[in-house]
Design brief:
alpha/beta, 7 helices
């Protein structure tokens, strides 16, 4: 069985756009749909967390432990051994309060890449293979985006991030899933149900060809 660890934020968790922390169901979020498409020869492991960042600390009450890098190794150890990790992080680093450029975010992802590709299984000392999935193109013009300037400037920055990240993956021979064509919902950040299905299809084609 080929085991795939999906490590991401609320778009991996399955946050329904415009709701108060409601989650898409087992037949809707991309991780579960991917499992159905790949069948019994694969195991898809969900590791999504709302508000998870790459490195930035979220100081809001109840948002402890959102630094994704701090939890990365314990998570990988917990699910050891797996064959692939699908990394989809960076959207929360677009928040205005963190003051990150698109290049800053790619540099953060580079640290993840180096760590993941040098990680050794405790079982047989092999390293997992990596797939990077791009985040959505943010729509900061929604009511959610405008409410507190949380994602001020994120639309253009997310477009630049997608381009830089694709170039980075091409230069480093890492499979990249471009999600710039996938729709986000009323909050401007979270994938729609249809986008979850489309992402699952993209990843299914990728893994069947690897």
């Amino acid at each position: 069985m080929i085991r795939i660890l999906c490590y991401g934020d609320s778009n991996t968790w399955g946050y329904i756009p415009g709701t108060d922390h409601e989650r898409f169901g087992l037949n809707e979020r991309w991780t579960r749909v991917l499992q159905q498409k790949l069948g019994n020869d694969f195991e898809v492991i969900e590791e999504g967390l709302n508000s998870r960042t790459l490195f930035s600390d979220d100081n809001r009450p109840g948002k402890e432990g959102r630094n994704g890098f701090t939890y990365l190794k314990p998570c990988m150890d917990s699910h050891d051994k797996f064959d692939y990790i699908v990394l989809m992080l960076g959207t929360n680093e677009l928040k205005y309060k963190f003051n990150n450029s698109a290049k800053d975010i790619v540099d953060m992802i580079d640290r993840y890449v180096k760590f993941i590709l040098n990680y050794k299984s405790q079982i047989d000392h092999t390293s997992p293979k990596l797939v990077i999935s791009g985040g959505p193109i943010a729509n900061e013009n929604t009511s959610f985006g405008r409410s507190d300037d949380k994602f001020k400037g994120a639309t253009e920055k997310s477009k630049e991030l997608n381009t830089l990240l694709e170039n980075y993956c091409n230069e480093n021979n890492i499979p990249f899933i471009d999600n710039s064509d996938l729709a986000v919902g009323s909050d401007g950040i979270h994938f729609t149900r249809e986008s979850h299905a489309e992402l699952a299809e993209k990843l299914s084609r990728l893994f069947k060809n690897l």
